[in-house]
Design a protein that fits this description.
The protein has one domain. It has 8 helices and 6 strands; from the N terminus they run ββαααααββααββα. α2 packs antiparallel against α4, α5 runs parallel beside α7 and α7 runs antiparallel to α8. The radius of gyration is 19 Å and the shape is globular. The C terminus is likely disordered.
Length: about 270
């Protein structure tokens, strides 16, 4: 059950969407900050690319969610546009957002691989926000345990499921937030040291797929089934594979050209 945090007449903002909105704003702020540091003359253009990617990511996540849970939306098609009711598949976000960002970067004259390095810093806050929202709304709920006694305090808690039923559960959402924090620390380290330019986002996406696939074994919430597994876990591993292939191809291309990865950039963006 997703609690309401703001209600102003016809406007209702629930906890999950409030967290996602906050994560998106933090991500946009990070991309704007990085743009001002590495490409100050075109910082607004970087944000244009980010906004295009964000809109496409929301559409992609909703579109994939509808495709995976077609029976639900076939009987209630009006719910497709009601994002507050759930039904988002996060894997659709990079699937739609990154191609849209590539096109927008080309149109706006923004170096795409440098932009993805900024996006690598912006990705983990979105993950943290999504898991925090799920902790309030009950999505991604872990398996129930008989009692909190005998379990480490950091592993279990009294938490609701998507229907608002509170029970002692594995605290998967907090684990997801911690995982997002670890990815954020990694992205910050790579940025600070200047390592893996042009490759950071692919590394973080691959690690995201791997980590979330593992967390999927602890989840008890409903998920469509694909290949006899939770569909989200299948897509998690697919994202890991695709990210590894794209990152590997880019790394090999950079090695062949005898330069550090950066998409052919020069000066401060190299």
């Amino acid at each position: 059950m997703d609690p309401v945090v703001i209600e102003l007449g016809p406007l209702t903002l629930r906890a999950y969407n409030a967290w996602l909105l906050g994560g998106a704003l933090v991500g946009l702020g990070i991309i704007g900050w990085r743009a001002r540091r590495v490409d100050p003359g075109r910082a607004v253009r970087w944000l244009d690319v980010a906004l295009v990617a964000l809109v496409a990511a929301v559409i992609g996540a909703r579109g994939l969610g509808v495709a995976l849970d077609g029976d639900r939306f076939a009987t209630s098609p009006h719910e497709i546009v009601r994002l507050s009711l759930g039904g988002m598949a996060w894997h659709g976000a990079p699937l739609a957002g990154l191609p849209a960002a590539l096109i927008a970067a080309w149109l706006r004259g923004v170096p795409f691989r440098a932009w993805t390095d900024a996006a690598a810093l912006a990705w983990p806050p979105g993950m943290i926000a999504a898991w925090a929202g799920c902790r309030d709304a009950g999505c991604g709920a872990g398996y129930e345990v008989a009692t909190l006694a005998g379990w480490p305090g950091w592993l279990v808690a009294e938490l609701p499921d998507a229907y608002g039923f509170v029970a002692p559960r594995l605290d998967v959402q907090s684990a997801g937030m911690l995982f997002g924090g670890a990815l954020w620390a990694l992205a910050a380290l790579l940025t600070w040291r200047g390592w893996l330019r042009g490759l950071r986002l692919w590394l973080l996406l691959g690690l995201s797929g791997l980590g979330l696939a593992v967390l999927g074994f602890l989840r008890a919430d409903y998920a469509p089934v694909l290949l006899d597994r939770r569909a989200d876990q299948v897509f998690d591993l697919a994202l890991l594979l695709v990210s590894a292939v794209i990152g590997g191809v880019l790394w090999l291309r950079d090695r062949r050209k005898g330069r550090s990865a950066g998409g052919g950039l020069r000066g401060p963006l190299a």
